[in-house]
Design brief:
Blueprint (H helix, E strand, L loop, with lengths): L2 H18 L7 E5 L4 E5 L4 E7 L2 E9 L3 E9 L7 H12 L4 E10 L2 E9 L6 E9 L2 E9 L7 H10 L1 E2 L10
Antiparallel strand pairs: 1-2, 2-10, 3-4, 4-5, 5-9, 6-7, 7-8, 8-9
């Protein structure tokens, strides 16, 4: 290969690397008064409301080009008698048709939770999710990587560490 062709190939490779991969910027602190939470997102999140049967899901999500970061919450009809069963049910819905790679019991401010690692059917995407049951509200804090090989442990840790409950909901009990 001539020096000129090599130089052109290198210049194209550098341009592709510089422009082809998303650039990460400063994260944005977002608070939802109605959702009673705050979190850092890679950009200002969009809010989508979805009526899912008897519950209304409120989702706040932002994409950084590598992953989608989201917080979804829904209010149940009553405070579940057994937080573990409620979290099991939420987990089972999430893994339908997917592969549960890992599961750990966790807590947030004393509230029961689960951390799930889920691979999509075919392995094209990987999600890391934290579910929390806070009174009669369930929170789903998720990072989805598609393709799965863009997994960024530091981004997941930053997002999860930033998720905070704003106030203790009325009628809730800390487990």
């Amino acid at each position: 290969m001539s020096k000129r062709a090599l130089a052109l190939t290198l210049a194209l490779a550098v341009a592709t690397l510089a422009n082809g991969f998303p650039q990460r910027g400063a994260w944005v602190k977002f608070s939802s008064r109605e959702g009673r939470f705050s979190a850092l997102f890679p950009a200002k999140p969009e809010h989508v409301t979805d009526d899912a049967g008897p519950y209304t899901n409120h989702t706040f999500a932002a994409d950084d080009g590598w992953a989608t970061y989201g917080v979804t919450y829904a209010d149940l009809n009553a405070v579940p008698d057994d937080p573990r069963s409620a979290l099991d049910g939420a987990r089972d819905v999430m893994i339908m048709g997917n592969e549960l790679v890992g599961e750990t019991e966790i807590k947030l401010s004393g509230y029961a939770g689960r951390e799930l690692k889920i691979k999509s059917a075919g392995g094209a995407a990987l999600s890391v999710t934290r579910l929390y049951l806070v009174g009669q509200r369930i929170y789903n804090v998720t990072v989805i990587f598609a393709p799965a090989n863009t997994y960024d442990a530091a981004g997941v840790a930053k997002f999860f560490a930033s998720f905070k409950l704003a106030v203790k909901p009325a009628g809730s009990s800390v487990a």
